[in-house]
Write a structure and sequence with these properties.
The structure is a homotetramer of 216-residue chains.
Chain A lengths: L1 H25 L6 H8 L3 H4 L6 H24 L5 H18 L1 H9 L6 H23 L10 H13 L13 H14 L8 H10 L9
Helix pairs in contact in A: 1-2, 1-4, 1-6, 4-5, 4-6, 4-7, 5-6, 5-9
Chain B binds a DNA duplex (21 and 21 nucleotides) through helix 2 and helix 4.
Chain lengths: 216, 216, 216, 216
DNA sequence: AATGAATGAGGGTTCATTCAT
DNA sequence: CATGAATGAACCCTCATTCAT
């Protein structure tokens, strides 16, 4: 009885998985409902029992991903007070979810603009919540004056992390834990950290803006 | 006279601009040739005088962008020997071109997979050349052992830089020169650099891998 | 009930008929799917439920025609041993089917080259089988030495028969039975057969090749 | 001077040749003016100096072919009075021209319907003249009563001859002279001529119409 | 809960043809 | 004579979606 009532949810989950894979591989607009029908074995019109439109399907995927990511972060942060550890947890949570759901995350990164109206608003809202949580974790760690613009800082971090679907291969590259540790160190201490003579040599270079010889 | 003879190239340039904007706004597959026709004022079939297929159009854009980016970098590096300055030039060149050609660069980032066959190979080749040049600039600067995986380092840098089309607004955010300076500092010295007590406190945290409490 | 379940096949048959007529009247390439849509009353896209491409549509027609023609011949020959009767049956079968399906046969004659790849191979294969069966019927009848090249003989016969779509009008010309009888006599006994003095007069003429006064 | 004035005609001849080849290979409608432009090396718009429309181009080819064929026949028949020789000349003239201009003749056979209006009328007129001349040659030879319908006879002959573009390969098959001789014998004396016992055995079979067991 | 059949809108592309130069 | 540039019409085909069953 109980199992039977789960049938619907199970099938929906199957559909979401297949769709996310399809959307990631071919892009949202290039992937057709027919592709999903073929992949899931459910007939074209049968699919429409589970969602009302293709856009809702995209929404369901994005909503589920962001919600999970966000809730995971909340759960982890709830048990940790130390700012450094909180930062570390945030990065690792983010990267781990991305690595484990690479296809879905590519969809998240690419296809936000494909949503419209209320769908877009709802995803944007949770995305904003997530971003704010991350920002506050970062700010709790910030030096009084790092000399770095706040938006540049947070979005550079996101850029580092979100870009991985473009190059990261689990079987070839370092494990997620090291990936997280490396990125944390890069972001917090920099590429040259630990190098002795760095302090003055580099510092001096950044003290004066470089001459912009560059034309557009 | 001479100007008149440039008509054809000018129109092609106009088409490429409009197409890049279209592709960036709606995505390559969502943007229709009819959209480009409407935007440029050239008839649908008239456009095909300038390119043989939509895919070639995408190729022309990507090829032009990457080539320009790559050649600009070569020109800048040719006059500079100091590793730090070379790094700075590389980052500034990259960011400046991205900021000045945001639409095109979004297309570059998103639509590489949309090319097939020889088009793809040719763009991939120049992309590889550009990446290698950047990598060598970075390596010339590298500490003996930063403890950070080489691929993680270079792609984190690219991630930081390439992500900007997702958040950077020229009129609202810092100028390109500062953007470049900030990212250089972030990447080279880290977010916490300059903070006195950082050395030991942070270092210790990275010495032992964080406990991975996280399940998939 | 049963009839209702045949709906799909019936519609396909309707489409094939209409398409064959269209292809015959305007030629394969000149006939548009829109024409077929108009003719059948089925929407343009609705047609694609029944075939995957225009080329497949042509294939379906050609395959059906050749297969029917070939199977009919097999059925007729199975019950007849006498070489003359077998020849007669072959000719009558061929002509009757052509006359009854003139449009389709014109398509068969004209549009073999319009097929490509596997479609072409499959039609060519059955065409070859049919030709071979006809050839063997002819050879079983052949005099030891008619003095006529084998290929010239069989293809002259086919030429006579296949050409009829260019001139034959059922309502104006002789009935199929006579058409078949006439062509059989023409082919087997010749136009002058029965004429008394023919034997020597004509024979002599063919004994020496005519002087070729003709320039290219 | 004189040579210069021939330039136009020479180029037109080049265009007609190339077009006929194109039309024969791909069919009239499938061959594009662009194909002809590519083949001749003359620019797309440049071609329109030599003809007013694609249809006129087809007309020029058909008209030239039929006229040449017809005039050649007239020249040959003018010097020959013997009915048998006249028949032979007619067949050989027809076949030789077909073999030497296979591409053009395929166009003639296939694309008569592609002409409309006056173009069609003019080609049809000369075609009718040619057919009538051939018919009269045949009738001059006819037995009082061959028992064969006149239309069946003449069109069977044409069928035999016109079909050759479907199977005849100059390098593989018999020479044109033998081709002509074979077809003449076939048509006049039949496939079984010379076979002694034929007379009664076969004749009897044709005296009674074959039982038409065949349903549509 | 699921499907076969159907559709309107729109996709990229090619075509014969024109016209100013 | 010849061409580069341009166009409207039409092409085949795919799409997300619906609806009776």
């Amino acid at each position: 009885m109980t199992e039977l009532r789960h049938t619907r949810d199970d099938k929906l989950a199957l559909i979401l998985r297949a769709s996310a894979t399809m959307f990631a591989d071919k892009g949202y607009h290039e992937a057709s409902i027919r592709d999903i029908s073929r992949e899931t074995g459910i007939s074209l019109s049968g699919l429409y029992y589970y969602f009302r439109s293709k856009e809702e399907l995209l929404f369901l995927i994005q909503d589920h991903c962001f919600t999970t990511l966000y809730e995971n972060l909340g759960r982890l942060l709830a048990e940790e007070n130390d700012p450094y550890q909180r930062f570390l947890l945030m990065v690792e949570n983010h990267l781990r979810y991305f690595v484990n759901n690479m296809k879905e995350m590519k969809v998240l990164s690419h296809e936000l603009d494909s949503l419209t109206g209320e769908f877009r608003q709802r995803v944007n809202q949770i995305k904003r919540q997530y971003t704010e949580t991350c920002s506050s974790v970062l700010e709790a760690l910030a030096p009084e004056d790092s000399g770095i613009d706040a938006r540049v800082a947070i979005y550079s971090l996101f850029g580092m992390m979100n870009w991985i679907y473009n190059w990261y291969h689990p079987e070839r590259d370092v494990a997620v834990e090291e990936l997280a540790a490396d990125m944390c160190q890069l972001f917090l201490r920099g590429y040259l950290s630990g190098v002795a003579e760095r302090s003055e040599a580099v510092a001096e270079r950044f003290s004066t803006p470089s001459p912009s010889i560059w034309r557009t």
